[in-house]
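Session log. Operator J.P. requested a structure for one protein chain; no other inputs attached. Running the standard single-chain path with C-alpha cell output.
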Amino acid sequence: MTGRLQGKVAVITGAASGIGAATARRFVHEGALVLVADVQDDAGRTLVEELGAAARFAHVDVALEEDVAAAVDLAVAEFGRLDVMFNNAGIFGATGSIARSRMDDVDRTIAVILRGAFLGMKHAARVMIPQESGSILSTTSPGGIQGGLGPHAYSAAKAGVIGLTQSVAAELRHYRIRVNAIAPGAVVSAMTADIVTGDASDLAGATEGLRGIDVAGRPGIPEDIAAGALYLASDEAVFVTGSTLMVDGGVTFANGPSPFATGDNVEPSAHHEAGRRS
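Structure written below.
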C-alpha cells in the first residue's frame, strides 16, 4: 500500500462488480474508506465483507435522486466527509436501429448513464462546496467520442457525460473541486462477456474474443481502469479538471498502424506540390 488515498472517503456507484469493484478494492488498498453503491445487493454486500471495516454498502439505483442523495448522506454519516465521488454505474442499454428504437429502453439507458452522473455530481457538490475540496469522476466511453463504437442511446449518454463533466468542472474549479471523466476501452467484465459471448459468466471467452485489439496485446481489465481512477481521485491530479482520461489501449485516437509509416511508406520521403516526391 502506498497510501495515495489515505484518509479519503469515496462513494463509488456500480461498485459491486467489474470496474466499480476493482476500483473499490484499489481505493481501500490505498487507504480510502469506500461506500459501495449498487443495485446488486448480494454482490455488493459480499464485496463489503471482503473489504472489511473500510467499506459500507448501500442499495442505489442511480436514476433515483433519493437513492443517490441517501448514499452521499450515508458516506458522510459513517465516515465524516466526502472526498471522491465516482459516478461509475452504467448499462449498455438500448440497442438496435434508430428507426426501430424502443423508447422505454432508450429512456432507461439515458437515465442510468447521464441522469445518474448528473445526480452524483449534484449531491457530491452540496457536500464538497462547503469543504472546498473534492474530486468527482464519471465513467464515459470511446462510444461517446467516436461513432460506431456503441449503441445510439449509450453513445449519446456517454457523450453527454463528457459535456456535463466539462460544464460542472468550470463551475466547481473555484471551490477547488476537480471534475473529470474516464473512458475505458474494451474491458473484460460480465457486461462485455454477455455482449461478446452471450454468457455474462464467460469471462474467458470474452478475453479471447477481445484479444489483440489494444496496445497491451490483451483486452483491458477492470484493474486498468481502477488505476486511472486512482490517479484522478488522488492529489497527484490536483492540476487536472475538465478532462477525459482515455484508458482504451489507443482504440480511439491511436488505432493504427499508420498507413504513412508502414508498408510501402516505411522508407522516408516527402510529398510536395502536384504529387512531386523527394
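Operator note: Residues 103-131 form the longest helix (29 residues).
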